Amino acid sequence: MRYHPHTAADVQEMLAAAGAPSVDALFRSIPEPLRLARALDVPPALDEISLSRELGRLAARNEVSHPPFVGAGCYPHHVPPAVDQLLLRGEFFTAYTPYQPEISQGTLQALFEWQTFVCLLTGLEVSNASLYDGATATAEAALMATRITGRRRIVVSAAVHPEWRKVLASYLRSTHDEIVTIPFGADGRTDLDALRRSVDGAAAVIVGWPNFLGVLDALPEAAALAREAGALTIAATAEAVALGLIQPPGALGADVAAGSFQSFGNPLSFGGPAPGYLAIREAHVRQMPGRVCGATVDRQGRRGFALTLSTREQHIRREKATSNVCTNAGLCALASTIHLGLLGRRGLAELARLNFDRARLLRDAMAEVGVRPVFDGPFFNELALDVGDAEEVVARLARRGLAAGVPLSRWYPDAPWSRGALLSVATELHDPELIRLFARAVRP
Questions:
Q1: 63 or 202, higher pLDDT
Q2: Do residues 82 and 338 lie in contact, with contact meaning Cβ atoms separated by under 8 Å?
């Protein structure tokens, strides 16, 4: 009854209201050969205690027993227990998108706070109320740039997350916009000479901040080149904790910031879900996809929140739409908002500094066993390490319960450093002893 609360009387009452003689009659539109005529082949139901024990047994089969050294766009961070508890509060209960402010003030205020945090961390003036994830946020930013500039070409650094670039290609395939990919150099930063040759006539230049390789890319220089050519600059960020330490992209010339806030309040969850963010300069607010939550006052002068600037119809009427975005990651965005609220300005800076320090400890521990970074550019908490045979190291350490990182050969198979490059991350979850254990395991 915990999972199926309707009694037989309840079922009959609902059937009567629906005008159906039986439950089977509700499915009469499904052809008879396609209907399952037997009971589901599943084990018998368990009581709650037995079910919890069984789930624990299955979870214990996971081979990895330590915090993973895998980053590559999804990062292991501590999520305070208060985040999950506050997510359960009734003020946040609403269905779909909160178009009805009378019943959605909790959710709307949380989205307003989300937008505030995004603007503070990116150094830009306006944020929307979240997008589906970092990849789609970046693609939406590129589409927005084509509308603003009237141009049909996007220039993107090869050091932007490869999977995000695939999503970008999927988006732009239907619009027939061109994508030009710019290589990166030995320092892991975008090749500015190649960018200079390709930026004329572009709608936007997309650069990682930090980029997929963990490196702090040449964002200020790329933004200057884009500005000279009349293009917008989009800073794409997957590891948002970095924004607690490095300069915000808006202060370095970026016109748009897009990415993921998975690092705040959202566990790894086998790769998702995670909220995407998009922030822009106010001059372009009418071209921003998604929804914007604004603060106002009612007739009694009480503060309230409501969606503003764009109507619901703007997102479902083709001729009026700025995008086809119909949903976002509201619950994940709320989790990020709560986590950032708990951290505060000082706590976020301390968390970012701790991540920065742990990555240096990882680099130094690897140097002691003869492993060097692949790239010599500045990095935050993630770096590519030349371990000789990255695939072999990953397989061998998995047998010891260590998730070592991601072999970059999966995305850059033709690069001369490809075979040995292992992309690894160190966060606040990786204590110094674990980092040293990891280094010794890489080179036993």
A1: 202
A2: yes
| Token digits of residue 249 | 């992209």
Q: What is the mean pLDDT of the chain?
A: 92
Cα distances (Å, whole numbers) of residue 411 to 97, 340, 363, 423 = 36, 32, 23, 11
CB atoms within 10 A of CB 147: 15
Summarised one tens digit per residue, pLDDT across range 410-428 is 999 999 999 999 999 999 9
| 323 phi and psi angles, rounded to 5 deg | -170, 180
Separation between Cα atoms, residue 290 and residue 324, nearest integer Å: 9
Fold observed for domain 345-442: Aspartate Aminotransferase, domain 1 (3.90.1150)
For 81-339, CATH gives 3.40.640.10
**What is the average per-residue pLDDT within 296-310?**
88
CA distances from 104 to 99, 100, 108, 305, 334 (A): 8, 6, 6, 9, 13
Domain boundaries of the chain, sorted by first residue: 81-339, 345-442
Cα 184 vs. chain centroid, distance in angstroms? 23
Q: Which residues, including other chains, have CB under 8 Å from residue 390's CB and lie 6 or more apart?
A: 405, 407, 408, 409, 419, 420, 421, 422
- Check residue 64 and give its pLDDT: 64
Task: Give the DSSP H/E element, type plus range, for residue 97.
Answer: none
Decide: helix, strand or coil at residue 40.
coil
* Distance (Å, whole) CA 246 – CA 215: 12
SS3 assignment for the chain? CCCCCCCHHHHHHHHHHHCCCCCHHHHCCCCHHHCCCCCCCCCCCCCHHHHHHHHHHHHCCCCCCCCCCCCCCCCCCCCCHHHHHHHCCHHHCCCCCCCCHHHCHHHHHHHHHHHHHHHHHHCCCEECCCECCHHHHHHHHHHHHHHHHCCCEEEEECCCCHHHHHHHHHHHHHHCCEEEEECECCCCCECHHHHHHHCCCCCEEEEECCCCCCECCCHHHHHHHHHHCCCEEEEEECCHHHHHCCCCHHHHCCCEEEEECCCCCCCCHHHCCCCEEEEECHHHHHHCCCCEEEEEECCCCCEEEEEECCCHHHHCCCCCCCCCCCCCCHHHHHHHHHHHHHHHHHHHHHHHHHHHHHHHHHHHHHHHCCCEECCCCCECCEEEEECCCHHHHHHHHHCCCCCCCEEHHHCCCCCCCHHHEEEEECCCCCCHHHHHHHHHHHCC
Cross-strand bridge partners of residue 382: 425
